[in-house]
Amino acid sequence: MIQWTTNFLASTFLISTPIILVGLGIVFSERAGVINIGAEGLMLIGALMGVVGSWATGSVILGTLIAMLSGVFFSLIFAYLTVSLRANQVVAGLALNIFAGGFTVVMNRLIFGVAGNAAKIDVFNTVPIPVLKEIPIVGASLFSQPLPVYIALIAAPLLQFYLMRSNPGLKIRAVGENPKAADSLGISVPAVRYMTLLYAGAMAGFAGAFVSMGQVSFFSEGMIAGKGYMALAAVVFGNYNPVGVLMAGLVFGSAESLQYRLQASGSPIPYQFLLMLPYIITVLALCVYHKKTNRPAYSGQPYHKG
Questions:
Q1: Residue 81 contacts by C-beta under 8 Å, 6 or more apart in sequence?
Q2: What percent of the chain has pLDDT over 90?
Q3: Nearby residues of 8 by Cβ (< 8 Å), 6 or more positions away
Q4: What digits encode the pLDDT tens for the residues 146-201?
Q5: 11-116+144-289 belongs to which CATH class?
Q6: Is residue 196 within 8 Å of 79, Cβ to Cβ?
Q7: Which of 165, 171, 237, 253 is the most exposed place for a label (fewest CB within 10 A)?
Q8: Residue 40 φ/ψ, nearest 5 degrees
Q9: Nearest alpha-carbon partner for 74 in 109, 36, 23, 111
């Protein structure tokens, strides 16, 4: 039982990390009033570009930077459409996701061939923390993880402080709650929205790179499998706060981890239901908490100055 619990927790932290990372980006753009459905596509692009970068440079760090830059680039396009041209944010996000699905298929086959990626790439290895890794159950499950896991766990409270207690964080929240009032105080609404979207794009690229180089060591078409949407749900479930995103991401990750553990143990529950489990929990969480959140008052609405 102890070994099962240790493995379950270790898997939960590993699976939750990309959801948390991209959620920590989405929460800022959402707080600025932009619905960022396109995170799913940005993660998929990041997953591919991370593998391409790692394969080309031989470094997982450089591969991750390339993935983050690719996320920033495509997020810039999304920002131009939604902030500058004031296009519908949901439609633009869905268009980005559809584009990413086709783009990654074409690029993957052009670079690695129809058979897929057989090239050797550098990946995220576990970074055990001395002393702490010896703690029963928690040590083996939490303190023997790849670096991005630690980054996600540490970043959440730091970003919570930045968003809720700092002057830049106040400006971000002001833009999402009342952009006209923020504009009257000299805050550039387009600049704030652009910056939060570019940051969210970088985090989505980082999260995608961790999926392809931390959870596995290759890219496969459609491998994000809804994690971007789960991150968006985590933002809502987490009450639009970074620490809330962390907790919600762990809940969703534990559901997916439980699914794998039950399948591996030969559970009599039909495997189709087990595959549905993480998404069922996500939908139920949204149904329960959607009316209890601090959704920005100006969420999803383009800003017309004057």
A1: 87, 92
A2: 72
A3: 141, 254, 257, 258, 261
A4: 999 999 999 999 999 999 999 999 999 999 999 999 999 999 999 999 999 999 99
A5: mainly alpha
A6: no
A7: 165
A8: -60, -50
A9: 36
The mean pLDDT of 16-35, rounded to a whole number, is 97
Neighbouring-strand partners of residue 127: 145
Which residue bears the tokens 């809330």? 244
Residue 255 has pLDDT above 70, yes or no: yes
Nearest Cα residue to 28 out of 156, 149, 151:
156
Residue 218 phi, psi (nearest 5)? -165, 170
